[in-house]
Amino acid sequence: MTTRGSSLGLASMDQDLHSTDNPFVAVEFDIYRNPEWDPPEEHVAATELESAIHTIYSWDFSSSLEIENSTASHKKNNTFVWLAVGFSVGGFALVVVGLFLFMLWKRNRRDKEDDHALDEEFKREIGPRRFSYDELARATNNFNNKEKLGQGGFGEVYRGYLKDLDSIVAVKRVLEGSRQGIREYESEVKIISKLRHRNLVQLIGWCHERSRGQLLLVYDFMSNGSLDLHLFKEDTLLIWDARYKIVQHLASTLLYLHGGWESCVLHRDIKSSNIMLDSNFNAKLGDFGLARLVDHAKESRITDLAGTKGYIDPRCVITRRASKESDIYSFGIVALEVACGRKPINHNAPEDQVVMLDWVKVLHGRGEVLTAVDQRLGGRFDE
């Protein structure tokens, strides 16, 4: 301990007092006498200009700084708690975001793998090819409503122009999120790619980019649209010769599907809206989304019910089995549509004529079947 004037210094005894290595604490205080607050006759260690060295063997004191340090320590602890909570919440959020990004990446990768697998399977077939979504978007003017040709249960059809082929095409866009639409898309490409017949709608190509939710089919463009548009619109009239040719073409197509190829093809959705007409009114059967390939001896083992009301063979509803005969039943309904110029079921017709088949049966039993022929033909038809 050293004192000089108004200072008190504390040093370690293990080091020389004047050494720079000696820890030193200096406290400033007043050692001079002051009569206003010093007790009478009591003034300790007043050595004026002299210095002295003392040894302190123990030292105890209290200070208000201890309370302040406690408060600071409490605040510091709170800070650590909030930091720990913040890091925990932030870490959890990072984990959740990381899992989400991983699942998204994995889904996109799976979609790309599925697309690649489908490509490889489709490429084994000769003819149709893959298009990119951007190609088909450009061809249809970004699927503009002005190019829209129609809409079905699982997709929309647009007119498009492919510059590299220099041809007008029909692009069917499967509705996003439709699982049935995806199955129909796969079935259509796999089946129709293998078939070769002049009265089948030709598939030009396909596009599947599932990461963008896009499944598209590209067909030859049929300038005269579907058969039903010509049968049921007041401003169009198919002459009898054209109707007869259409039925012949459809019959030829069914003969090929059922027996002219290595497997039996059950279409299961033959109807007038699935029969397309080219510029010369040649009929071409399309929409093979519900079709199935089966062995010739096992075609009746298809057990899932499919088709359109009014065209489905009633026996299929009971047995839930599709067959060549059920396709032929649907063909017969279309033939009656062509001859009568009306839909299979018409709720606006008189009660006894709502179901076309029942109405024609009654007329046939009376010997008046010719009265069922489309009146717009004006009697110009072959009996």
Automatic annotation (TrEMBL):
Cell membrane found in the keyword field: yes
GO biological-process terms attached to the record: defense response to oomycetes
Primary site of residence: membrane
Membrane topology: Single-pass type I membrane protein
Residue ranges constituting the Protein kinase domain according to the UniProt record: 143-383
Compartments, as annotated in UniProt: Cell membrane
SMART domains in the record: S_TKc (SM00220)
Stated name of the protein: Protein kinase domain-containing protein
